[in-house]
Amino acid sequence: MKNYRSRAELKKEVKNLLKRRWTTGVLLYLIPLLITGAGNTANNHNPNVKFVYGSTDFYVNFAMIFKILAITGIVSFVLGVIFSLISISATFRGFDWVNDPELDVHPIKSNFTYFRSPDWWKLMVTYLLVNVFTFLWSLLLIVPGIIKGFSYSQTYFIYKDLNDRGLADDYSLTDYITKSKQLMRGNKWRYFVLQLSFIGWFILGAATVIGMLWVFPYYKLTMANFYKDLAEQNQDILGY
């Protein structure tokens, strides 16, 4: 029987990690947080601009026009690659930090780690595969899409973990997705409840704005700690 750490234990370990180095946590996830916040603001903001011609009012949605142009051009692709690499770089460094609490993180620099990696394209292809598979399941119904999203949730951590251990030579990119599904069998409910436990924190963080500077690192590092716990209890799946 696998002896997984409880939700409280996972979160307590991360709280202790941040208690000693709160500034490091804030700086490590500051850029990904700003990117996330900017995206949400753009989606929620009313982009219509009013024009008056004679007695007639009409509106032009410049944001939507830009989105349409961006989607059909290289702009969205380049921005997507940049933002994804920043987010994944921060996530991976957070995982390193969870594994080694005394690690010298270099938080801002760590956001750009995978811009210098020759394997950056593998991360982007993996990102594309995960999103395509999740989208295809979502076409059936929302719930199957959510469940599959949980199944695929550990893909990036597995990629990072196996590559760091020098065990990735015999694996294809889809193998990481397969191993994520194997790890999450019987653990999707634990993952869902762990995610749910942060709703109050995110509401509080959003209400105080500055509170998100603490909540976001707390959440991201807890997700890294969740994978660490999974990996320790399922070494046979990961091949070590």
Q: What descriptive keywords fit this protein?
A:
240 residues, 72% helix
Topology:
Elements: H1 7-20, H2 22-44, E1 48-53, E2 56-61, H3 62-71, H4 74-99, H5 107-110, H6 120-138, H7 142-151, H8 155-164, H9 173-184, H10 188-196, H11 199-208, H12 212-233, H13 235-238
Antiparallel strand pairs: 1-2
Helix pairs in contact: 1-2, 1-12, 2-4, 2-12, 3-4, 4-6, 4-12, 6-7, 6-9, 8-9, 11-12
Polypeptide structure, described:
The radius of gyration is 20 Å and the shape is globular. It is built from 13 helices and two strands. It is mainly alpha-helical. The longest helix has 26 residues. The protein starts with 6 loop residues before the first helix and ends with a helix. A hairpin with a 2-residue loop joins strand 1 and strand 2. The relative contact order is 0.14. A two-stranded antiparallel ribbon has the order 1-2. It is 72% helix and 5% strand.
Question: How many strands in all?
Answer: 2
* Major sheet description: 2 strands, antiparallel
- Spatial order of strands in the largest sheet: 1-2
Give the rounded overall mean pLDDT: 85
Strand % is 5-15%
Rg over CA atoms: 20 Å
Poorly predicted spans: 49-56
CA-based shape: globular
> What's the end-to-end separation, in Å?
18 Å
Question: Quaternary state, please?
Answer: single chain
Count of alpha and pi helical runs:
13
Percent of residues in helices: over 70%
Succession of helices and strands:
HHEEHHHHHHHHHHH
Label the structural class: mainly alpha
